[in-house]
Specification:
The complex is a heterodimer. Chain A is built from 8 helices and 10 strands. By secondary structure, chain A is an alpha/beta fold. In chain A, a hairpin with a 5-residue loop joins strand 7 and strand 8. Chain A is globular and about 60 Å long. Chain A starts with a strand and ends with a helix. A 4-stranded parallel beta sheet of chain B has the order 2-1-3-4. A 4-stranded parallel beta sheet of chain B has the order 6-5-7-8, with helices on both faces. Chain B is globular. The relative contact order of chain B is 0.12. The chains are: A alpha/beta, B alpha/beta. The A-B interface holds A 66, 79-82, 105-106, 113, 115, 117-126 and B 363, 385, 388-392, 396-397, 399-400, 402-404, 406-407, 410-411, 414.
Amino acid sequence: MSVRVGLDLGSTAIKAVFVKEERLIWQGLVATAPGQEALAEHLIAKGLAESGLDKGDLQNPAVTGYGKGLYAKPGKVIDEISANALGCFTLSGGLARTVINIGGQDVKAICLDDQGRVSDFIMNDKCAAGTGRFFELAARLLDTPLEDFGRLSRQAAGALELNSTCVVFAESEIVSAMARGAGREELIRALHFSVARRVAGLAGRRLAGGGVFLDGGPAQNEGLLEALQEELMIDVQVLPQPQYTVAYGAAVSL
Amino acid sequence: MNRPDSVNLRRDRLKKRLREKYRAECEQELAALESRADYRPELGSFIALFRDGFSPKTVEERVGRRVVNLSCLQAPVELFHALNLHPYKVFGGSAVAGRMAAPSLPALVCPMIRAMLGALELENEAEAARPWVLPCTCDWMAKLGELDGLCGGQMTGPVHRPQLPRLKESPASRKRWLEEILALRAFLEHIAGRALTRRGLQKALLIMQEARRAFTRLILLRRAGRVPHIWFVLISNAFFLDRPENWTLAVNQALPGFTQAAGAPLVHLLGSPVFFPDFKLPRLLESAGLAVSGDDFCSSERIFPRNVAVADPSESGLLTALAESYHQGCLCPVFADSDRRAHPIVEGAEQGAAGGVISVVLKGCHPCDLESYSLEQSIRKAGLKFLRLETDHGPEDSQNLATRLEAFRHTLEAA
């Protein structure tokens, strides 16, 4: 029972990690769908197969995320803000003082104390503007995989401005811009800045001194990182595999 | 309001459908209260006030007096009681009732106003025209009559609109408010068909003084972390559903049972009012492991203004004292600037040993939204943690709110 397990049952993906001491030894994810507990169990089973561990090596998982209440017998339940803080703090070697997390349906800015505990935070209210959902919609409209957004954004020749981060209104704005002949690269770059403005508006009021880190799935998008740095006017760092930070934080909270 | 037949037909069908859902929503909340581990028979009397019916008509039958609907607490209830009238504070907290009014209202209307107007339409039992007192406090209250017109016009009786001076400190505003009190008196005398007497007013003042005294005891127990927030909200909400003497008796009977300290991090709340059946936030606070030791809601701790200090026992002196009490004692964000409001909020939090303050704004409640930003500065300056939440009566954001409340508890524990 030397391996700690963290499960992040998020709104768009379920993430699982195995952690030995403080080292991330396996991670995996599956898209969120009905039957989240079964999906999480399958994910853990997959992790066991891939890592060569036995079930007996694993501790009962620490569970976090929107679906945390759906897991019947967790070893621990932790809210995703605290898990995020702890995960990012530990993985950054204690450097993180502000974490900006862009999740499937929320945006958070978390301030940490020098022990990695949450000292303050801010999170969007009942609106998914500027979150992972927004990027999913854009990827569908532009018929472009999300993985290509960062690269394409850098190829943008001209500046274009999109005003809406609302998943409903952005659709018509994107479609109108396409109809006017806007290029895909320009549109993607404009999307990044549109989201970055929204995130900076929220997070800009909660920046602690020290290292600022971006995590969550969209943090893998270099174009978004660039736009966010530009809008926040500070350096923002991204850890390797930033989509697993919250699950990792849950695991190390055990 | 004249509508095409097809629109009326749809509204009638919608009303029928939503009325059942509204009743089910209310009953579900009441049953949940009864099934709590800390339920006691003394608390059952408050539940019964809702279960037995809380429409103006039902309350009128219960209290045996003519009911005058009241949209905001800024009108002195003592005047109503002195004239043998019963003030009924119209309220709204139902997401289902809000759906009844929503098609006729602006999208970003205050959820409480939407629910209130929806509930009025759902509860309309072809009753006789009822008088209304609509203090023009926030913009939504000032426009309530017009908004009601958009929702089919349930306000068919005579309406009186006290105009409140927003600046309190000047002698002119005191004079003007006193004039409004006298105008309200004239309106209520007309409704009651009798003149106000000094004796009647004195008696009403005493009744309300007793109610305030019982409520103060309850608040003190709450400061000690002994009164679960959900019961405090229920008890406060029930005030207008019965004669004040009966409510006072029920509160005094319930008081000795609040013996258990919460043993959870304590918070102080401020923001938009919370009304039955919207107990989403009280439940989420409990689930997140937080207890409430005080609040600034006009639906709970602020239901009574400060004591009426009578220096001159003449009728005119009583009326002046009453006017002063409601005008100077009102700490509604519409009439009190944030500097003036910050002090009692911080003081209340400190008295209740709260580590943090949570501002809960109903989306569309502009005064509470506006002030939350300036209050945040004062609250943080006092060394208290601060969390701002924006919500409505619907359950969809429960998980989002729960996440923040749980994290807020951790920040309190870490402090």
